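Retry 2 of 3 after timeout on previous attempt. Resubmitting structure tokens to design endpoint.
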């Protein structure tokens, strides 16, 4: 029998090797996740973001240009930033009122969701990430945001004004069927369970969430967060147990048990809590506090018109804020994502016509001037095997 003194070094060596792959002994001991048909396997049940760790690129993004794509809501354009120089190098004309730039499930296309703000001329503009150029737009109804089914076969166009999800072919965008969520006023952002069986969407103008069965395509129920709340972005914890929900009126993040669909806690962050992005190692959650609610022309928490925006950092293990990064001179950080190496958090400055680049080690920020009212910017390429949509929910 091997002695304890010999087993310990070998165990340590094995654990070290697993750590180098972004894994852990606990993850190896955890039971496998039974995913829905067609969904790629969950490699690490303790951290579903393992495959989106720094530098872990899919062969599918080979040849993609390193760029930041910024949809400018009031300019009907996308500003293209070179992250190496922090300069705008191109401006792409797109459809009316572009809201988000969404990486496709297969990582081959970036889709600009031009929702025309309730008008009839909504569209999706494809961008080729290998050339950085836009293609011909496809007309669709009210595409405020877009996600993809876990098997990658269909796009889920979020028709916010109609409280509806439109399931379309992931490539042609031909409509297959629709799902109404009538009690979800302002349906807009979502994340998926670790096994892909359900998704939870936020209802911005109803202060609640809606849970969707992704297999049977039906509404499972609604959860009231706060009657006066305005839930925005939503992101699931690395182990898939807790959904974090940014609430712009509550100035913080609600925690929801996804399986039981119940509130289990709240973390105060900053004024106008809006966007949520996990760090590349899955240990932290970056929270964009927009500095105001800016609803129907009104701003809250400002002095002399200055947005008191900031970024808070939540530790997933402790569920506590461990850092806060104010923007010198004020700002309005909204939506974006983390760079491929995990060193920079890119966020749009919604009401300052800027893009912010935060150093994730220090919180120091650089600013880049873009078009009018930038919104859901995409960082590309990103690590990961596939995208579930929004500005890059990578798994």
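Retry 2 succeeded. Sequence:
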């Amino acid at each position: 029998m091997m002695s304890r003194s010999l087993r310990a070094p070998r165990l340590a060596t094995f654990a070290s090797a697993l750590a180098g792959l972004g894994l852990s002994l606990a993850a190896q001991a955890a039971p496998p996740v039974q995913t829905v048909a067609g969904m790629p396997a969950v490699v690490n049940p303790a951290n579903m973001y393992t495959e989106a760790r720094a530098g872990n690129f899919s062969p599918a993004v080979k040849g993609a240009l390193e760029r930041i794509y910024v949809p400018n809501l009031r300019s009907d354009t996308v500003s293209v930033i070179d992250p190496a120089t922090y300069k705008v190098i191109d401006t792409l004309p797109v459809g009316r009122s572009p809201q988000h730039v969404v990486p496709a499930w297969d990582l081959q296309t970036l889709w600009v969701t031009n929702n025309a703000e309730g008008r009839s001329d909504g569209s999706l503009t494809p961008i080729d990430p290998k050339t950085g150029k836009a293609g011909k737009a496809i007309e669709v109804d009210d595409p405020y945001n877009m996600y993809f089914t876990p098997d990658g076969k269909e796009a889920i166009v979020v028709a916010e004004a109609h409280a509806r999800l439109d399931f379309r072919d992931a490539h042609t965008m031909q409509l297959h069927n629709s799902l109404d969520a009538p009690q979800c006023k302002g349906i807009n952002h979502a994340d998926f369970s670790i096994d892909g069986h359900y998704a939870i969407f936020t209802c911005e103008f109803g202060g609640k969430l809606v849970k969707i069965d992704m297999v049977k395509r039906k509404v499972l129920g609604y959860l009231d967060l706060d009657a006066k709340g305005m839930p925005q972005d939503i992101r699931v914890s690395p182990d898939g147990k807790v959904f974090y929900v940014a609430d712009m009126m509550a100035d913080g993040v609600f925690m929801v048990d996804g399986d039981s669909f119940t509130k289990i806690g709240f973390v105060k962050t900053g004024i106008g809590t809006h966007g949520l992005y996990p760090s590349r190692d899955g240990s932290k959650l970056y929270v964009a506090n927009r500095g105001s609610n800016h609803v129907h022309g009104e701003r809250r928490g400002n002095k002399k018109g200055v947005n008191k925006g900031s970024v808070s950092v939540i530790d997933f293990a402790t569920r506590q804020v461990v850092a806060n990064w104010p923007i010198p001179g004020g700002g309005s950080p909204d939506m974006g994502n983390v760079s491929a190496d995990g060193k920079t958090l890119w966020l749009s400055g919604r009401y300052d016509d800027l893009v912010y680049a935060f150093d994730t080690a220090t919180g120091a920020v650089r600013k880049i001037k873009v078009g009018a009212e930038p919104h859901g910017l995409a960082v590309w390429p990103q690590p990961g095997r596939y995208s579930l949509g929004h500005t890059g929910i990578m798994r």
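Attempt log closed. Residues 333 and 349 are 5 Å apart (CA to CA).
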